[in-house]
Every structure is written in C-alpha cells, then in structure tokens.
Amino acid sequence: MPCLNISTNVSLEGVDTSSILSEATSTVAKIIGKPESYVMIVLKGSVPISFGGTEQPAAYGELVSIGGLNPDVNKKLSASIATILESKLKVPKSRYFLKFYDAKASDLTS
C-alpha cells in the first residue's frame, strides 16, 4: 500500500483538504500503477518547519511503497505532488522536499 505523509507549516483552517487528499490519491495511484483503494494520504498542517532558514510556506513529504518506485516514477511523483501543494496551499515548488522509501513487504506490518 503506498502511503504519502505530507507535513506543512501552512494552516489547513479553511482549506478544502478533501480536494487535496483526493487529488493526491489519484496522482499517486496513477503514477505508481496501484489501485486508489490501496493508497493512503496523511496531511498535517501548522507543523513548525524552517526551510532555508525561513518559516515561509514549506512542506516535507515521505512516500512509502512496496514496489512501484524508481528514479523516473519518483521524479514524476515529486513534480505532481509539488504542483498540488503549490496550487492548493501556495507552497512554492522550491520549498518542498519528498523522500521515497521503496519497502519490502517483510519490512511492514499491518
């Protein structure tokens, strides 16, 4: 199951988080090639984050997947999620970092 955890210092108050979750789910599923029913998205706002020495809008993400990740997929995912964060939360693409974990099934427990 792919799981994308996103933390941002932007407040989510008044933000349509459902649209972010929905768009991120379909994006991750499409790019990785897994069913949407397997994708989990966790979105945390108002997290204290400093990026480049400032607290301007920024975000950090971690994506864990059992298979489906490679340099080309990772590049597409990073760009697509950055676009979502920029359009929905005004986080500039240059102030976003996404870390990838290609896990083995034996590494995870349910």
Helices and strands, with pairings:
Elements: E1 3-8, H1 17-32, E2 40-44, E3 59-66, H2 71-89, E4 96-103
Parallel strand pairs: 1-2, 3-4
Antiparallel strand pairs: 1-3
Helix pairs in contact: 1-2
Fold and architecture overview:
With 110 residues, the protein is α/β, with parallel strands linked by helices. The chain has one domain: Macrophage Migration Inhibitory Factor. Helix content is 32%, strand content 25%. It contains 2 helices and 4 strands, in the order βαββαβ. It has helices at 17-32, 71-89; strands at residues 3-8, 40-44, 59-66, 96-103. Strands 2-1-3-4 form a 4-stranded mixed sheet, with helices on one face. Helix 1 (17-32) packs antiparallel against helix 2. The protein is globular and about 35 Å long. The model has no long low-confidence stretch (mean pLDDT 94).
Characteristic key phrases:
110 residues; alpha/beta; Macrophage Migration Inhibitory Factor; 4-stranded mixed sheet; 2 helices; 4 strands; globular; Macrophage migration inhibitory factor-like protein; phenylpyruvate tautomerase activity; Tautomerase/MIF_sf; Macrophage_inhib_fac
Portion of residues in beta strands equals 15-25%
Helix and strand pattern: EHEEHE
Structural class: alpha/beta
What is the number of domains? Answer: 1
**Highest-level CATH class:** Alpha Beta
Query: Percent of residues in helical segments?
Result: 25-40%
- Write down the overall mean pLDDT: 94
Oligomeric state of this protein: single chain
Main sheet characteristics = 4 strands, mixed
| Architecture (CATH level 2) name | 2-Layer Sandwich
Under CATH, the topology can be stated as Macrophage Migration Inhibitory Factor
- Radius of gyration, taken over Cα atoms and rounded to an integer in Å: 14 Å
**Count of discrete alpha- or pi-helical segments spanning 4 or more residues:** 2
Q: Give me the count of strands.
A: 4
Runs in which pLDDT lies below 50 for 5 or more consecutive residues are none
Query: Which sequence of strands runs across the widest sheet?
Result: 2-1-3-4
What is the terminal separation in angstroms?
10 Å
Overall, the morphology is globular
Protein name: Macrophage migration inhibitory factor-like protein
GO cellular component, one term: extracellular space
InterPro entries: Macrophage_inhib_fac, Tautomerase/MIF_sf
Organism: Morella rubra (Chinese bayberry)
